[in-house]
Amino acid sequence: MRSLGKRVELLKVIAHPVRIKILEELMKGVKCVSDFEEFLEISQPNVSQHLTLLKRHGIIDFYVDGRLKCYFLVDPIIPDVIEILKKDYIEELPAPACCPVTKKGKYPGARRH
After folding, report:
1. Is residue 24 a part of any domain in this protein?
2. Bridge partners of residue 68, in order along the sequence
3. Which of 7, 23, 34, 46 is deepest in the core (most CB within 10 A)?
4. How far apart are CA 63 and CA 18, in angstroms?
């Protein structure tokens, strides 16, 4: 089981739009660096930096096929995390009827942010 610190670190590592897109693609199967360059529309060195970070944290790995590095997912939590992030929640959670400790008070409704 992952410690809280490891779970927080995982979220920090994947919390970047490019890395989320990379992980979404890897959920579909093995991809090479050139595959990422095409759909991400960023430079090869930039793609490699993101892939290196994900590999360093044990989220992905690769094998070499000739001159190509082919990347794949290894961390089993990633598909679950990505699916949760893609989920569309329509409603907020219901407000409490009162304070759970004192059993008094009432939620006043919408608050200004």
Report:
1. yes
2. 65
3. 23
4. 21
Q: Is residue 104 part of a domain?
A: no
Is 0.85 topped by the overall pTM? Answer: no
Radius of gyration of the chain measured on its C-alpha atoms: 20
Residue 52 φ/ψ, nearest 5 degrees? -60, -45
Phi/psi of residue 91, nearest 5 degrees: -120, 155
Q: Let me know: does 36 contact 25? Beta carbons within 8 Å.
A: yes
With beta carbons less than 8 A apart as the criterion, state whether 98 and 105 touch. Answer: yes
d(CA 51, CA 92): 35
Whether the CB-CB separation of 59 and 48 falls below 8 Å is answered with no
Q: Which residues contact 46 (CB under 8 A, 6 or more apart)?
A: 18
List the CATH number of the domain containing 73: 1.10.10.10
The residue segments making up the domain with residue 65 are 4-86
Tokens of 67: 């001159």
Structure tokens at 45: 């060195």
